C-alpha cells in the first residue's frame, strides 16, 4: 500500500473534445465555497496507473489547505481536489498489476472528488471482501500517518500512555484506534464532550477537554506522570501544555497545525526533561525510511483486512455538496472522517 504522491497534470475544464465526467474543480485558490462541480475531460491512465470509477472519496484537512493555496505544496489551478478514494478499476495502464472490476483504494495528491480518477498502481490496495468502499476510502491517509507516528517514530509499546491531541479528528481518531490496537493506554484530548465520548467509545482510557481543563495538569494526573508519547496534529496553543505534560524522556511528535498556527516551543523544556521532538510527514517518510514504511504499511493492511481497525465515518456528503463537506472540515466539526459518496 505504498502511497505515492504524484502531481497530476491539472484537469482543465474542457468541452471541446473527448468524453467528459463530473468533477469538482478548484478554479482559483480560495475558500470551500469557491469550488464548483463541472464537466472535465476523463483522465486516461498512463503506464503504471489505474483508471478508477470512484465510489467514495474521503476529505482530509490538507484538502482545505490545498484549495486555499496554503499547503506545503501548491497545485496549479485549475485542479480537482481530493486525495483518497475507493472504487472499481475500469482500466489498467501498462505494467499496472490490476484487472478491470477489482475494488481498490488508495491515495493520490489530487483528483479524487470526481466520477473517475487515476491512481498509481503502486499506491493501490485491493479492498478486502468484507470492507465497504467508504471505509476503504477513509482508511489510507490518516491511519497511515498515525501508524508511522506511533509505530516507527514513537516506538509505542503495550501499556505506554499515549496522549492524542485533536483525538476525534481524522488523524487523531486513527491514532486512538491504532494505539488501542497496539495495547497502549490512550489519553484523548479534544474540544467537546461529544468528541471525547466518541474517543472513549473507541477505547481511550482517559479524556481531557483541552478548551476547558488544564491540559498539562490533567495529563500528569491521569497518567500518573508517565505520558510517554504525544501525537499532535493540531499545533496552536495546545502543543506546549501537552509537551509540558510528558514524562521525562518522552517523545513529542508534531504532525500538523489544524489550529492554524505553528507553535514555538521554549527549548529549555526539551532540555530539562530530556524530551525528544520529532516530526513525521507522510509524503517524505517512505523515501526517508523505506524499511519501516514498508513494514508499517504491511501491518496496517493486515489490520484492515482482518477488520481489527475500521475508520469512524462521522458525516457523508454527495459529490455535488463537496464544498459543504470541505466547509464542515474547515469548521472543526469532524468526528472521525468525512466521506464524499460519488457513485
Ligand atoms: N504529517 C502528515 O503526514 C499529515 C498527514 C495528514 C494530515 N496532516 C495534518 O494533520 C492535521 C489534522 O488533519 P486531519 O485530516 O486529521 O484534520 P481534522 O479531521 O479536521 O482534525 C483536526 C482536529 O484539529 C482540531 N482543531 C483545533 N483547532 C482547529 C481549528 N481551528 N480548525 C480545525 N480543526 C481544529 C479539531 O479537534 P478539536 O475540536 O477537538 O480541537 C479537529 O478535530 C492537519 O494539519 C493536516 O494537514 C499531517
TrEMBL record:
<dbReference type="InterPro" id="IPR013154">
    <property type="entry name" value="ADH-like_N"/>
</dbReference>
<dbReference type="InterPro" id="IPR036291">
    <property type="entry name" value="NAD(P)-bd_dom_sf"/>
</dbReference>
<feature type="domain" description="Enoyl reductase (ER)">
    <location>
        <begin position="30"/>
        <end position="340"/>
    </location>
</feature>
<protein>
    <submittedName>
        <fullName>2-haloacrylate reductase</fullName>
        <ecNumber>1.3.1.103</ecNumber>
    </submittedName>
</protein>
<dbReference type="InterPro" id="IPR013149">
    <property type="entry name" value="ADH-like_C"/>
</dbReference>
<dbReference type="Pfam" id="PF00107">
    <property type="entry name" value="ADH_zinc_N"/>
</dbReference>
<dbReference type="InterPro" id="IPR011032">
    <property type="entry name" value="GroES-like_sf"/>
</dbReference>
<dbReference type="InterPro" id="IPR020843">
    <property type="entry name" value="ER"/>
</dbReference>
<dbReference type="GO" id="GO:0102523">
    <property type="term" value="F:2-chloroacrylate reductase activity"/>
</dbReference>
<keyword id="KW-0560">Oxidoreductase</keyword>
<dbReference type="InterPro" id="IPR051397">
    <property type="entry name" value="Zn-ADH-like_protein"/>
</dbReference>
<dbReference type="Pfam" id="PF08240">
    <property type="entry name" value="ADH_N"/>
</dbReference>
